[in-house]
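To: structure desk
From: M.T.
Subject: fold request, one chain
Message: Could you run this one when you get a chance? Sequence is below, nothing fancy, just the single chain.
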Amino acid sequence: MIRVCIAGNSGHAATVTRALPGLPQVEICGWCRAWPGEPMTEVLEDFEKLGLTPPEYPDYLTMIDTLSPDVLVVDGLFCDHEEMTCQALARGIHVYCDKPLALTLTGLDRVREAAQSSTALLWAMQTARFDPWFYTAKQLIDAGEIGEIRLLTAQKSYRLGQRAPFFRDRAQHGGLIPWVAIHGIDFIRYLYPHAAKTIFAHHSTMANQGYGDLEVTAQLMMTLENGVSAQVSADYLRPANAATHGDDRVRAAGTHGVIEVRDDTVYLINEHNDGSTPVPLQYPPAIFEDFIATLEGHGSGLLDLAESLEDSRLALLARDAADSGCAISV
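Reply: Done. Structure tokens follow.
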């Protein structure tokens, strides 16, 4: 059995519990709240649905030192990702951590060094690569359906809703760009896996409904290798009565066509397709299923340590560019 502990549920920890029916070799051996009063809503609801009753521990260090699990799921305050990850890696425990992996570039270097000096695996929860619509777009691009990519745009839009108190304090949540726009950065890097050269960004706390220093709008532009331009927008302005919580979109324009992803659907325009009919979706493994498969030596290769680190690095650089109002060479 692969023994897993869950610390927190402030982000994407439910990608673990929802994968459990397809992972009979995985056992949840313990869980804890990552901050006082953390609701743990999705994880606890999934435990109930699955008939699981793992013990609760007072904190993650007590839990991992008592249980010595194979995997720690890190999903607490975003400011704690760095320390929790480094503590687990130092003990040889594999880490499945929500993004960003740290809130500062210095902290990210610490995580990098901890991962490189450990025998354990570290992944960030970059879930988009495992969404069928983005995966399908990637397969089409790799098959040459739009030729050579020249321009990419990505969008992440969420309802603001009712958020945990720590979202009011950027020292704890890190900012809109490292938490939300990082997905758009990952969209771009997944579809066009070439190095970024420069980043310019802007963000604003205006109209944040009293959420302290939480930015609710952000826009960033990256220049990539081969003269390719990429743009990412992120916001918390999605109306409360919208049909879905989020609205993720990507457009990739190439020398022979265009791919658009919207409403979890893929559209292709090229010499053979007019874009009026959705492209049939292809299905990758679920992200945590692939994490476990990677531990077992047969992962898909969709995500790895280097990709996890680079997404966090670019997001932190973009936030710094927005803070300074200056373009940053990367």
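Reply (cont.): The chain has two domains: 2-125, 128-329. Let me know if you need anything else for the meeting.
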